[in-house]
Amino acid sequence: MPFAGVAFIWFIGVLRDRLGQLEDRFFASVFFGSALLFLAMLFAAAAVIGAVMLVASVSEPNELISSATFRFARAVSYIIMNVYAIKMAAVFMISTSTVVIRTGIAPRWIAFLGLLLAVILLIGSFFISWSVAVFPSWVFLISVYILIDNLRGNPLADGG
Question: To bridge 80 with a disulfide, which of 17, 45, 72, 160 should be the other Cys (CB 3.0-4.6 Å)?
């Protein structure tokens, strides 16, 4: 999980570098704030799950699984990730997509796809089991686009 967090922070840095002088302070604040909140909740849920796994390794696993502590920790990590972190991921997608549309740092279809997927996360993440894959897939899509665009030597990406 720490490596995923570092990769996400790197992704945020790449996007902000690509924006350069085009960065809008309002959307940059929402973009950065939602990214940090998502990352904090991701780490909090991972810490809760890690603590439960640590306790399970030193105690009787059958006792732990039937305990109220285990059920509470599992519920806390589920709520953190599937309610709050997913909603922050959706806010991040909305703000990033808006910035992409306004600045043109990536194709508009990626931004519109981001907006559509963000609505799915906001409304249906609790009911759609595959929704946990939406955010990382969208981040991967933008990352691949930026990587290919930078390898081509796009003047926009070089600040020119």
Answer: 45
- What pTM did the predictor assign? 0.79
Task: Answer yes or no: are the C-beta atoms of 116 and 101 closer than 8 Å.
Answer: no
Distances (CA, A) of 143 to 12, 55, 77, 87, 115: 10, 37, 28, 21, 17
Write the DSSP assignment of 76-138 as a string of letters: HHHHIIIIIIHHHHHHHHHHHHHHHHHH-SS-HHHHHHHHHHHHHHHHHTTT-GGGGGHHHHH
Distance, C-alpha 22 to centroid of its chain: 23
Q: Which residues are CB-contacts of 14 (< 8 A; sequence separation ≥ 6)?
A: 143, 146
Task: Domain ranges for the chain, please list them.
Answer: 2-152
Name the pLDDT band for 160 (thresholds 50, 70, 90). very low
pLDDT tens-digit readout, 88-134: 999 999 998 998 898 888 899 999 999 999 998 888 766 777 777 88
